[in-house]
Each structure stands twice: as C-alpha cells, then as structure tokens.
TrEMBL record, chain A:
It comes from Roseicella aquatilis. It holds the Pfam family SBP_bac_5. Belongs to the bacterial solute-binding protein 5 family. This is ABC transporter substrate-binding protein. GO terms for biological process: peptide transport. The keyword Hydrolase does not apply. Residues 1-19 form the signal peptide. It comes from the Bacteria. One of its GO terms (cellular component) is outer membrane-bounded periplasmic space.
From TrEMBL, chain B:
GO terms for cellular component: plasma membrane. Residues 99-314 form the ABC transmembrane type-1 domain. This is ABC transporter permease. GO terms for biological process: transmembrane transport. SUPFAM superfamilies: MetI-like. It comes from Roseicella aquatilis. It comes from the Bacteria. Belongs to the binding-protein-dependent transport system permease family. It is a multi-pass membrane protein. It is found in: Cell membrane. PANTHER family: ABC TRANSPORTER PERMEASE PROTEIN (PTHR43163:SF9), DIPEPTIDE TRANSPORT SYSTEM PERMEASE PROTEIN DPPB-RELATED (PTHR43163). Signal peptide: none annotated. The chain crosses the membrane at residues 103-123, 135-161, 187-209, 249-272, 292-315.
Amino acid sequence: MQTSRRTLLLSASASAATAAGLLPHPGRAQDGQRRGGVLTIHMNGEQRILNPALRASTGVYVITSKIIESLVDLGPDGRILPVLATGWEAAPDGRSFAFHLRQGVTWHDGKPFTAADVQYNAMELWKKHLNYGTQLQQDLLAVETPDPHTAVFRYARPMPADLLLRALCDLGYIVPRHLFEGTNVLDNPANTAPIGTGPFRFVQYERGQHVIAERNPTYWREGFPLLDRIVWRFISDRAAASAALETGQIQLSSYNAISLSDLDRLKTDPRFTVTTKGSEANAFNNTLEFNHRRKELADVRVRRAIAHAVNVPFFIENFLYGLGKPAGGPIPSTSAFHPGGGQPYPYDRRKAEALLDEAGYRRGAGGVRFTLRLVPIMNGEDVPLFATFVQQSLGQVGIRVELVNLDIAGALTRVYRDWDFDLATGWHQYRGDPAVSTTVWYRSGSPKGAPWTNQWGWQSDRVDQLTDQAATELDPLKRRALYAEWTKAINEELPIWMVTEREFQSVGSKRLVNAFTGPRWASGDVHDTGLAPA
Amino acid sequence: MRILALALRRLAASLPTLLIILAGLFLLLQLAPGDTVDALAAQMGGGDPAMMARLREFYGLDLSVPAQLARYMGRLVRLDLGFSAIYGKPVAAVILERLPVTLLLMGSSLSLAFAGGMALGVLAARRVNRWPDTLISTLGLVFYATPSFWFGLMGIVLFAVNLGWLPAGGFEEVGAGHTGLRRAVDIAWHLVLPTVTLTLIFLAIYLRIMRASMLEVMTQDFVRTARAKGLGETAVVVRHALRNALLPMVTLIGLQAGTMLGGSVVVESVFALPGLGRLAYESVVQRDLNTLLGIVFVSALLVILVNFVVDLIYARLDPRILAGR
C-alpha cells in the first residue's frame, strides 16, 4: 500500500515537472524512459486512402497522424501546440494569418519541408478536396510565401484565430507538394503509401490485414519516437477485437471500435484502461432528424412532444451502459462554446400527449394519431437500438413508427439525396468548433444531397444570421455569446433533436506509458508514448 | 487432347451464362440506393456536394447506366477488371491477394470435412440405429445447427483467451518476417481455429450424405456377391461399397465449390482473415461495383473449372459415366 502511494506521488511530481517545463531537455527522452517495442492498434474498418490532407475522419487520423504531421495540434485544456508551425500571428482585421514554420524538417524521402508545401496543401487539397476543409477555407484567397519558412494565409472575410487554429489541428495536415503537384491527387500512389514528416515512416499496407510504420530515425524531435514500430490491424468483428486485446495481440482500440458491452467488461479488468481520455476533442450525439415537409413535423409542438415522449436517461442507463448524458443542445458540455443548461425537453409523457392533442392530432382508431417512417443511419452500434427505442416510446403516445432499414449508403441517399423520410436517426460528431462540424446541420442553403447538412426543409433567418456572424467574429468572447444565442434559438425551434451527448471510449493495455495524454491523443502522433514489456 | 477439347467446349458453353450473370448483377446493383461516393461520405462523416461530384466523376459514376455497363463490358473483353474504389488499386490485384487465403482456408476445411464426413458416415452406416450411429448423427446435427460465428468466438475464448494455445485471429504473425517453412508453420498455426470452425459446419452435410449413400450401396447385389465370394467385411466396405458410395459426395463437392469460393464472411470476420468473403461483403456495403463484379467473374470461372474436374473424377470412379457420353 505504502509503496504504491509513493509511486503515485513520484509519478505525479514527474508529470508536474514536465508540465512546468522544468526538465532540462524537453525535446529529449527522459532518462529511464522505455524505448523500443511494437504497438499494435486495432482498426475496425479499412480506410480507402491514407491521406489526412484529403480525408478528414478519425479512422484516417488514427493511422496517418503518426506518419504525417499537421501545422498545429491540440494540447490539454484546449491549448494549441506548435507542430510544423512554430508560431503564428493574425492581422488585426482578421483577413490574413501568418504561420512561421519549423526549420530543418525533412520529408521521409529526404526532401526539405518548406512554405511551398503549406501553400500547395492549403490551396489545392484543403480548399478543393478535404471534407470540412472546403467549407473552412472557402474564403481563402491565397497563401503567400515571403520566405521558405513563412506562409501567410489571405482571406476574403475575417477569420477568427481560435476557429482557424482549432480547426487546423484536424484539417491542417501537410503532405509533400513534390509528390502531388501535377498529378491527379485522388489517384496518387502516395495516398496509400503515405510520406510525411512524422515520427514514424510508412513501411507496408496489406489490404484487409495491416499497416506497418517504423521509427523515423531523422525525426525533428530529437530522441523521439520511443516506439520502434506501430502496426494497425484490421479486425472488423467487435467481439474478435476484444479477444485480440485480451490475448495481447493488440494493445489499443479507440473511438468505440469495440462494443459497449466489452468496454463495460474490460473496465474491471486490471490489465486494461478504459477511458474517455485521449479523444475528448471529439464528442458525439445520438440524433433525431425531422423532415419538416411532413405537415405534422412542421409543427414545433409535435417536435417538442416527440422529445418529451422519449425517456433519454433510461436509454442511456440501459442501452449505453450509462456512458453519456442527455444533450442540452447542439454544442456538447465539454466544449468552451457550451452555453450551459440541461435537456430542454425532459421526459414527460403526459406533456407530450397534451402537446399532440393541442396540435390537433388526436388519437384515432387503435389509439394511433399518425404514422411516421424512421430511417436509421447506421454509423454506430447503438443506432438501431435507439431507433427501436424511439419506435416504442412514440408508440406509447400514439405515434406509430415504421422502421426503414437500409445499409449506410442507402440510408444516406434516402435521407439526404431523396428527402424520402419522416424521421431519421444517427450520430452527429462535434469537431471542436461549432463552425467546423455543427452549424451546417442548421444553416440553410446547403445544396441537396450533401450528407449531414440541413436537408430538413427548415429555415430560420435568425439562425442563419447568427451562424454567419459567429463564423467571422474575431473576439472569442463575443463568439461564445453568439453561439449561446444560436443555441437558444435552436432549442426553441428544435428543427432536429440532439438527444444524447457522449464521449468516445478507448481501451488500452496498462503496458502503455504516457498514453491518453492529450484530447487528440488517439488521433495524435504518439511520439512520446512507450510500451512496457509484457 | 480429348480432355482439352472437352474443357474448351465447356468454357465456350459457359461464356454466355457468365455475361448474363455479370450484366444482371450490374443492373441489380443499380437498384441498391446510394453509390460508392455515398459510402465514402458515410465513412468520412461528411462531404460537400462539389467534392462528391468530383469523386463521382473520378469513379466514372457521372455517366448514364447503359454507358457505364458498356464501358465495363468493353473492359471485360480485354480482361481488364477495372479499378477498386475501396482499395485504390486494380481489382485483379486485389482479388489475387485474397485468393490464396480463401483457397487455403476453404480447401483445407473442405478436405477435412470430406475426410471426416466420410469416415464418420461409414462408421454410422455400419452401426446403423445403434448408439454410435445415434451419437454421430446427433453431433452432426448439433454442429450443423449451431451458427459458425458462435463456434468461432467460443473457440477464441477457450483456446486463445483462456488457454492461450492458439492465436485469436489473423493470417500470420504481423511483421515477424518469417520466411519459408517457418512462415508456413506460422500460417498453419493461425488457420487451425478457423479451419475447424468451418469444417464443423460442412462436416454434418458430408456425414449425412455418406451415411445414406453407404446404406443404399450395402443393399446392392454386387455387395452380396462380394460377400458370397468370401471377402472380409472390411474389404467389402473399402474396396466395393465405398467407391460406389462416393459418387454423391463428389457431386456435393462440385456444388459446394461455389459456396467455397465465395468465402465465408462470418468466419473471415471473426478471425480477421483477408479472404474473398469479407472482400465481397465490403464491396457491397461500400458499393464498390468493380470489385464485386470482379469477384463474381473470378468465382464463376473457378466454379466452371471445379465442375469440370468433378466430371473427370466421376469418370474415374465409375467408368460407365464416360462410356455413356
């Protein structure tokens, strides 16, 4: 007992020393820190391309962030950490933004990294191809390179510094210009054999089996990385993945890639850490989308009644193993933009019935008021569960729900391209700033067919106006106030319903040293993570 | 020479069928809502319409359906299976990577099931309606009725997690760099659990067929003749009855070749094996038309081949079959 407390104190003081920057060489591996080892990470699905400058998704980051680096990364408490950019400053009018780039960095193929690479990525990849990037950089006019280590971004409209920096943690990955320029970027061989500046070099990609990367001996953070190799293994069956964890074949699985029941079981296993740490940068919600072209759903009383009819805490407790809480609006409570406040329409069946009566939809034959079709968009294991839960909950207040089961490509087409649904349910993922991932769900004017945007047949001038204002407001405090107003307007109208608020779960072996350290660790470069011997 | 001519004739006769299957499948898949770009957007968690339009153009999905079909058929004539949307390389290369794994897994489990089914079937037939027969038949039924994913997972829990005797999944030790015999042993080690899991499913069918077939053959005149001329029971069973009872088994192998080449999605997923079954499943979910059609094409060719070989085996087992041709 005493020993363990002492160890605890020692490690606490060590981390305090690191945090305070007291260690003599912050860039060097600490003495006694374990080097070597092969970390094997679980992937539950194959990624089509391994290029984070073309595809923004956690699946792509989990692999490529170890090989390719971004301009900046997200540190604890939301601080922005320098990576390929060492410093930055915004012009007072917010229309230009200068990045000072790290010197002496080379690509894995030996060529130097310069501002020309940044210019090419921003203009040709982020602005033209990268999902979420196209929208973030739509007002980017040019990237100027006054010298090889400075890149100045010029915008047509003011760009809030906090928005840009936070977004670039995910949308600021740089791939080598000399490999992509003048080619069809979608078809480039470097998309599946990535070359970057990161701590690990790509070795091999065996389709359907694994990706391997090994230590980059010329990495710019001297003495890092600690691991010799990283192997990502593709295991699509969730139960098989947790067996692989237990036999030690894999040491890490992030972003809810194994089932909630296994996470719950492994929580009490002394060999593993089950945590929401290391992925706090991404939160997600179970959603319920309404098609406002149905006259019943165009009535806000009906939408509120539906929210009142579903017992969200019960669902979380019994279907999600208690992992989550009812959402207070589109912005999760873990975000700095969260205005406070709880579930706007808590479970109250009597109120739901009263609202439906008031709206003029009385119970008819068999106690049924009207019938709705619900399309589950299967991007998470709990989506079909929630769909069934909604079906039964609404059945109790007299709304008959028919489930329309399709696979994910089919469901997306049905909802977003054909608008052929009454209700839909799936996940919304919050990516650090409402302007990156969330306002598109509410802002009007999104072209038909764009998935996960406002295709609900609902429009509000006020919400549109607040969205645009907040996206160009330079003062961080005023931006927060605008999003508080925006949230209020949305909760009032409830155009779609963010039902739960959840964080991603990771499970890792206790052998991992210095793991789950930052909010983007699972999508980060893991240069200072080690692996204790088995 | 005669065999070669026969083979060519068979192939020529199968070509129209093959084309109809491919065109039919192509059109059938057009009925599935969503295309590969939708599936990609789903995987990425978002995508704006301009980017999606660019991707559709990249994948050739902006053309009309007849134009796409004509383009596919045009390429097929030149034996070009096209480009896989999921894997970003030629379909032929993707399938070729997976084919050995599938053939190895399915080949070994089918042989094991065939051998085991034959032995148990003969045993059951010789002790018909006594306890060995009842035991074997019941066990066979239990194996057949149990879902393979359950067998697989229980096998993993018992032999990999609890006992630690066998690996939990994968085709080989990743990055171990084994070569030659070492590698072969390593792969065999990894394939023990999946092979046994699949074998148990097939075993029941072979066992039942063999038992019934043996029972029928044992009542035939030539068996009585063999006995009458003083042969021992073992010689009667092995030399006379077995050979004749094998015909339905061979038929069954020919029929199951199709299933076999389609791979087993369930077993491949549970054991994380890179086989054709998982590839086909992924292709459907991700709407990767080229890959799916490629798999169908290759499987169809192999089925034609296997059935041809089965015909040759018939002739060898029972010379009357060739004489009648």
